Amino acid sequence: MEDIVGGWWDKLIRRAAYRGYPHAQVCLSDIEQQAPLFFRAMGGDAALTIKTAVGTAHGARRRLLERIAGSNTQLELAWRDGQSLYLPEKIDLYPDAALNRDLYFWLMALAAQPLPAGDWLTRNRLAAAACLAQMPGLAALSPRLVAALLPLRDMPREPAAAAREATIRLALQQPEADITLPQAAGAPQPVLLWLHPEPPGSVAANLDDGQTPDSGHGDSRDGKQRRRYRARRETPDERSNGMLLQFRAESIFTWDDYVKVNRHQDDDEADDGAAAEDMDRLTVTRDGKTRSSRLKFDLDLPAAAYDDTPLGGGMLLPEWDYKRQRLVADHCRLQPMLPRDAQPAPLPDALQPLARRLRRQFQALSPERMRKSGEASGPDIDLDRLIRFLAERRSGVAVAEPALYQAWPPGGRSMACLLLADLSLSTESWLGEAGQVINVIRDSLLLFAEALAACGDRFGLYGFSSLRRSEVRYLLLKDFAERYDDAARGRILAIRPGYYTRMGAAIRQSSRILLEQPAQRRLLLIVSDGKPNDLDHYEGRYGVEDTRRAVLEAKQAGLIPFCVTVDREAGEYLPHLFGRNGYSVVHDARRLPQVLTSLYARLTA
For the chain (length 605 residues), average pLDDT per consecutive 10? Predict the structure, then answer.
């Protein structure tokens, strides 16, 4: 009974102490379609993705009810780094939902400005003044948000704290005024209209040289992993077992403190990560047992007898270093290969019905055959020319015998298409009822090839994966010079998941091959399931910028690059890579073959 009453009391006091307005709540997911476009339109870095922030302990004085309830100790504030823009997961600051929604757009406009040097107040004040000066459309939005915020803020009783609060209010109302923040005891009340006073740092910045954080395979689809935490380095306790020799109440460990205890890795509870959602700082340490060392056996290249067949000695390709803003020559080694154990095989029976339907549809795309008269030879006689010739001859006019035949040469359009498939390790994952990603890609390649063979267009099929810059594996499935037959089908059926996704090098090699084709229009179709990534520095912003540079190079050469993906988070980075109209996200992987063929018909119309 005590537990029940205590639960009621806890809910009651927390509800009474809560300052927000849940009925007017607006979530970041509600504007996830407009947010990236607005941020880039305001001048924000197009390479940044938009993610949810994590709560931060603000340290300001709280109201009495909040102290009793133990609430309002953390707030989600907006900030950005070199990788992402972090916004609150939800905003219910105002009683009006329209104001809460406008606050999201104001924070994005503020984050789009380059932050000047100075303290917290100066940085945000100058950024707000720059927003209002460069974007007059925000002149009505900002005063409305400020006017609704001021009554919600408390005025401290202490003279120094009251002077500081008055200065903050003046900076909100007149951001162009040259004012400084006076000193006072304690932390000031957080300002939700401004950016984070101390943005969380990067975990990677706290690592020793040679320590590599676990990067995964770039296909995380769990929204909780999109948060960003502040980190601190901690020296590990080298004792193999922990034992309390003298008990003190203050020595009990919290969730983020630990003693190095011998136990099996699988003993962790499945819901341990739930506690991390309420933390603003995670403690990290290096104990010499990194995950990469445990996976090293799986990530090593197989022996030559079990690996794909290399073709030649490979080639060196450049790579774009966005930090130095230059193209590094001969930085990657690309190795063309053939799938191992590929045997000629017919189209699987399960794909025959859909393949027949696609062939019929694409045969309609074939150019119509046009009659050509006046040929020296041909299957038909040109009756008009023959009658005219005989009439002139009988009238006594001396004429030479003309070309009296008609021909029906095959119509043709000058079109070449190269389809590049991502065969990274993440394609081994499952997509619900659609099965494994690699199986979906395999079926898509087969059906796409059947459709293009029916319409007579020239095409090539390739796949890629990578293991650092020294091993970019480029799989030949069908070259432009060969017919699409059972040998090509056998190579497609033999593909399997590879390693990582160094997409820039694969796009550059595909562009080279496509530019060699004698065609007026050249289409580069890319099928992928995740972001560019690799085991080295290619993870994150570096890989995205190199891929974007490779796509721009392809466009400048006259190619038409287009990406089709099954990654649900692709909308965060593909607009930066391929442009607004240069990609398509397939939410149902089972429709990937039909989407590919319909896209081809539209792009080549």
Answer: 81 85 91 85 84 84 84 86 88 92 92 83 88 84 90 89 91 88 87 85 43 41 46 53 48 49 46 52 56 48 75 92 91 93 91 89 66 70 78 76 69 81 88 81 92 88 93 94 93 92 95 92 90 87 92 94 85 83 84 84 77
Phi, psi at residue 278, to the nearest 5°? -95, 5
Chain centroid to Cα 7, Å, comes to 42
Q: Are residues 384 and 434 both part of a single domain?
A: no
Are the C-beta atoms of 299 and 499 separated by less than 8 Å? yes
The tokens for 354 are: 């859909």
- 324, part of any domain: no
Range of the domain at 403: 372-407
Helices 159-173/141-149 angle, 10° precision: 160
C-alpha–C-alpha distance, residues 149 and 31, integer Å: 22
Q: Where are the alpha helices (DSSP H) in 174-319?
A: 273-276, 291-299
- Read off the DSSP letter of residue 533: B
Report yes or no on 123 lying in a domain: yes
Candidates 234, 226, 239; CA nearest to 254 is 234
Please tell me whether residues 112 and 14 are part of one structural domain: yes
Q: Do residues 12 and 85 lie in contact, with contact meaning Cβ atoms separated by under 8 Å?
A: no
Helix locations, 383-529, DSSP H: 383-394, 437-455, 486-493, 503-515
State the pLDDT at residue 213. Answer: 42
Report the DSSP pairing between strands 405-407 and 372-375.
antiparallel
**What six digits make up the tokens of 493?**
């059926």
Number of domains into which the chain is organized: 4
How much is the CA Rg of the chain, to the nearest whole Å?
Answer: 32
The Cβ of residue 268 has, within 10 Å, a number of other Cβ atoms equal to 10
Same structural domain for residues 161 and 278?
A: no
Instruction: Give this prediction's pTM.
Output: 0.68
Cα 72 to Cα 470: distance, rounded to the nearest angstrom: 51
d(C-alpha 585, C-alpha 569), whole Å: 9
Phi and psi, residue 356, nearest 5°: -60, -40
Contact 488, 435 (CB under 8 A): no
Residues 510 and 554 in one domain: yes
**201 in any annotated domain:** no
* 83 occurs within a structural domain: yes
Q: What is the pLDDT of residue 305?
A: 66
Q: Do residue 400 and residue 421 come from a single domain?
A: no
First-to-final CA distance of the chain: 73
Burial of 361 by CB count in 10 Å (0-12 exposed, 13-18 middle, 19+ buried)?
Answer: middle
Q: What three-state secondary structure class fits 562? A: strand
